[in-house]
Amino acid sequence: MENQLLEQYILQHIEPEPDYLYRLWRATNIHMLHGRMASGHLQGRLLKMLVQMIHPKNILEVGTFSGYSALCMAEGLEEDGRVYTFEINDEQEEFTRPWIEGSPVGHKVTFIIGDAITEAPKLNITFDMAFIDGDKRTYQQTYEMALSVLKPGGFILADNTLWDGHVIDPNYERDKQTQGIETFNDYVRNDARVEVVILPLRDGLTLIRKH
Prior knowledge:
globular, alpha/beta, 8 helices, 211 residues, seven-stranded mixed sheet
């Protein structure tokens, strides 16, 4: 109860959630099986602000889902900036594409159905920032791909890295998704090519800077 009240207090004291994104969040939770996967108000405002701080020209997103996070990042971009967002589940397109294209910032988003690990490098784009929020089982491979197309000094954000606290629960069954998150966290922590900070925001958000 205390955590819920604290979260409510936080949301009342930050930038309001734009009406379009609120409607998208509602539709996601009504029509999608795992609606809570959408970034939501607090993380969405953080993503927008981080983009405004980093000033990226090109952002790579792995895992579009309903498009909420892509649109939040697009909000923070300059007019000539672009988010390239990949969704591997083609069944997602019917819901997501109209929401992206109907957004006031939808023209800054390129929505691609396909496996980012193999397809993103084919764009031949050097990215300034990446947001990883796809298949947890392949987080390490996704990270290596993102790092390979990221400029020096660029940033990678990885979502769900605390995995509902399961990373520290010895009694939780280690399914492949949990194992993927734990492997990723250990791997990045020991990667001399980057510096890393984990924020205990929602389900864990890791900020990674490439040297």
